[in-house]
Amino acid sequence: MKDVGAHGGSESDVASPTGSAFFGWDRILELTEQMVRAAENSAWEDVALLEEERRKLVYTDLPPLPREPPGEAFVRRAVQRILDADQRVIVLCQVGQQDLADKIRSLRVGQRAQRAYRQAYRSE
Prior knowledge:
Elements: H1 23-40, H2 44-61, H3 71-123
Helix pairs in contact: 1-2, 1-3
């Protein structure tokens, strides 16, 4: 996925410096991109599972923040990319929610029509 938000960052924009200290960040970015793809495919259960895994990494397994360049710049870009991707997922969820609401309204209209037809048929 090349564009997940308003900043239009690509994977190369957040390539991590070498070293195991950045593995957690790389995995968080990977999960974030998977979340966006799942949301684009309306795979909401997958989005939730991926977000849960990502949250666990953020709160329990994330290495300390680097205090010197290039690590500091990497983290800044990574956080912005995550925020942009999360915003994209939120928008996709809202669209999906609206689509579902429209389908439910359509089903209700169909159910009302069926009841009306049945009542008209019975009264004949």
